[in-house]
């Protein structure tokens, strides 16, 4: 039995609360069980210097964890003078995941920055951030269309993410912290609504995993991503 008393293929309770920030063009409070991430999408009429004059836009992301998102206080990275390697990895992953499903030429020479702040962590913060970021990005693009800044919403597809792992020889979907810290294998899957792969991150923590075990995790991930995309569709309907 899992610590959360879920079935191996059962996700935590997932919810999206839209429009939680007054000033942001798009925002969402996403919850994967006890993991809560606040996401804000901001339209900026500027581009990185290397993109100017190319007739297309850009979507980027920043990620951070509030000091008491975890059991013990974590020092703010701004006081350290630079983000950690983990933070850089995650925010680049979020940005890449969003850019794969946006038609950047239709966005025009503008940038959308998606800020993902973890306010409570219980495993799967990057997967929750990516999934909630799609909602905030969608609402930012809808805001632009409503003000005639765009003729259409330039989203090609949905994108969502979920974790899977092998614990005590059993493949499990959507790991919480207790499982993630004890997993023999830990994988993150980022996929589109159409079933395309954006990124796969898999690590053997204790012993190498087999092709059979990977395929079992992939099957769980497909089920989880399908559920998340359905919830995204319901949230923005």
UniProtKB/TrEMBL annotation:
Subunit structure of this entry? Homohexameric ring arranged as a trimer of dimers.
User: Can you tell me which residues the record assigns to a coiled coil?
Assistant: none
Task: Return the similarity comment.
Answer: Belongs to the RNase PH family.
Binding of phosphate occurs at 86, 124-126
| tRNA-binding is among the record's keywords | yes
Q: Which InterPro entries match?
A: ExoRNase_PH_dom1 (IPR001247), ExoRNase_PH_dom2 (IPR015847), ExoRNase_PH_dom2_sf (IPR036345), PNPase/RNase_PH_dom_sf (IPR027408), Ribosomal_Su5_D2-typ_SF (IPR020568), RNase_PH (IPR050080), RNase_PH_bac-type (IPR002381), RNase_PH_CS (IPR018336)
State the EC number(s). Answer: 2.7.7.56
The organism is Ancylobacter defluvii
Its EC top class is transferase
Please describe what this protein does.
Phosphorolytic 3'-5' exoribonuclease that plays an important role in tRNA 3'-end maturation. Removes nucleotide residues following the 3'-CCA terminus of tRNAs; can also add nucleotides to the ends of RNA molecules by using nucleoside diphosphates as substrates, but this may not be physiologically important. Probably plays a role in initiation of 16S rRNA degradation (leading to ribosome degradation) during starvation.
> For this chain's UniProt record, which GO biological process terms are given?
rRNA 3'-end processing; rRNA catabolic process; tRNA processing
UniProt protein name: Ribonuclease PH
| GO molecular function per UniProt | 3'-5'-RNA exonuclease activity; tRNA binding; tRNA nucleotidyltransferase activity
Annotated Pfam families: RNase_PH, RNase_PH_C
Alphabetical UniProt keywords:
Nucleotidyltransferase, RNA-binding, rRNA processing, Transferase, tRNA processing, tRNA-binding
Q: Which domain of life is it from?
A: Bacteria
Exoribonuclease phosphorolytic domain location: 10-140, 159-224
The UniProt catalytic activity note for this protein reads: tRNA(n+1) + phosphate = tRNA(n) + a ribonucleoside 5'-diphosphate
């Amino acid at each position: 039995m899992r610590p959360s008393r879920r079935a191996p293929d059962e996700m935590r309770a997932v919810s999206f609360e839209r429009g939680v920030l007054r000033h942001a063009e798009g925002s969402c409070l996403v919850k994967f069980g006890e993991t809560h991430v606040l996401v804000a999408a901001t339209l900026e009429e500027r581009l990185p210097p290397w993109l100017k004059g190319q007739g297309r836009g850009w979507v980027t992301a920043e990620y951070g964890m509030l000091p008491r998102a975890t059991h013990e206080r974590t020092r703010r990275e701004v006081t350290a003078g630079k983000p950690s390697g983990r933070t850089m990895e995650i925010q680049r992953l979020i940005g890449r995941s969003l850019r794969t499903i946006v038609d950047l030429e239709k966005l025009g020479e503008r940038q959308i920055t998606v800020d993902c702040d973890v306010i409570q962590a219980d495993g799967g913060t990057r997967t929750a951030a990516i999934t909630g970021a799609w909602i905030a990005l969608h609402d930012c693009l809808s805001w632009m269309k409503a003000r005639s800044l765009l003729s259409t919403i330039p989203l090609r597809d949905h994108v969502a993410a979920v974790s899977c792992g092998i614990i005590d020889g059993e493949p499990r979907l959507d790991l919480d912290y207790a499982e993630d810290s004890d997993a023999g294998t830990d994988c993150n899957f980022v996929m589109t609504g159409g079933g395309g792969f954006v990124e796969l991150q898999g690590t053997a923590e204790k012993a190498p995993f087999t092709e059979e075990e990977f395929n079992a995790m992939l099957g769980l991930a497909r089920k989880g991503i399908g559920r998340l995309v359905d919830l995204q569709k319901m949230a923005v309907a």
